[in-house]
Write a structure and sequence with these properties.
4 helices, 67% helix, three-stranded antiparallel β-sheet, 12% strand
Length: 224
């Protein structure tokens, strides 16, 4: 029996082929998702499905007989329930007509079956998505902070350069004025000795002339 035949077999019980196909797809999808997530799917009277990890090992190629290393892997495993085994072995007889061979689950137990497993898997996915979103938000905030810090550093550097340039411009005229003042002072110092020499030269002949006149007067007075 393949999937299409299974759908045809339960179509009358579910009110149509489309409803049966949707039911089969929903059941198989829920079971597969649960097993992939690492949960165990157990159907009372039928069996259980679970994920089994196989460690790395060595095997032999059946065609060449060569020893080959097989990597670690995970495989699904089905264990038939006791009721299923008894029906297959003939210990128990199949029910007649439309009776269901698999035992019905007791009331309230469906909450802990495959539906609960699917809910757990969905909750895990939601938690993972939330964590990823939180990490992305933190990364964006960190990047924004780094960008802001870099911009602030660049602005501070530009401000410092501008201040230095302004200070240099203000200091330049002051240096020029100081240099001019120094040159003027040096010129005045050079001029002062020359003026003193000229004054002394002018005063010396005047003193000599006055001394001569005084001597002449004294001589005239003695002759009289």
């Amino acid at each position: 029996m393949n999937k299409a035949q299974l759908v045809e077999a339960i179509a009358d019980k579910l009110g149509g082929r489309q409803q049966a196909a949707d039911a089969v797809d929903a059941v198989l999808d829920a079971m597969v998702r649960a097993v992939v997530a690492g949960d165990r799917v157990s159907v009372t009277g039928f069996g259980s499905f679970e994920k089994v990890d196989r460690p790395a090992r060595y095997a032999r190629n059946p065609q060449t007989g060569e020893r080959v290393r097989v990597k670690k892997t995970s495989v699904p495993r089905f264990r038939a329930g006791q009721g299923f085994k008894d029906l297959v072995s003939g210990t128990k007889k199949l029910p007649k007509g439309d009776e269901v061979a698999v035992k019905k689950a007791p009331k309230g137990s469906l909450m802990g079956g495959a539906s609960a497993t699917v809910k757990k898997a969905a909750a895990k996915k939601a938690t993972t998505a939330k964590k990823a979103a939180a990490k992305t938000a933190v990364a964006k905030k960190t990047t924004a902070r780094k960008t802001t810090a870099t911009a602030a550093k660049k602005t501070a550097a530009k401000t410092t350069v501008a201040k230095k340039a302004a200070t240099a411009k203000k200091a330049a005229p002051a240096k020029k004025a100081t240099t001019a003042a120094k040159k003027t002072t040096a010129t005045a110092k050079k001029t002062a000795p020359a003026a003193k020499k000229a004054t002394s030269k002018t005063t010396a002949p005047a003193k000599k002339t006055t001394a001569r006149k005084t001597t002449a007067k004294k001589t005239t007075a003695r002759n009289k």
